[in-house]
Amino acid sequence: MKIPISVLVVIYKSNRDVLLIERADRHGFWQSVTGSIDAPNEDLALAASREVFEETGIAVDQLPAGSLRDMHHHIEYEIYPEWRFRYAPGVTRNIEHWFSLKVPDGIQIQLAPREHVAYEWLPFEEAAKKCFSRSNGEAIMRLFSAN
Fold this sequence. Notes:
Strand order of the largest sheet: 4-1-6-5
Helix content: 10-25%
Number of strands: 7
Radius of gyration: 14 Å
Number of helices: 3
Distance between the termini: 37 Å
């Protein structure tokens, strides 16, 4: 069963383009990297790094120190009913912690085909509008309103 605590990682380049990835299980659902923690005591930054690697092939530990940043913000949201089977019975809400990751301009992306089928780099305003999750768009806008 999934733990209802997750991370969202907005990946971006120096020109403020943001990486969006399209879910394999939902055509047209574009998002940033997301994923649940694997254990109740898993460090959130380590979970973020793990999810980034699993979903994009980007090794955070190979990037300059400070590339991954905790945005010191979290939200609570209702889990889509069709995805609740992944959680313990009665779990309907998730807490999502936001991170950002600045990557080099020429970074290569290698998607996990079981999870995502396509990716795009978009100007941050466009990326925020294209996300299927309103809160994902808010995370993108929050990142660039602070920079």
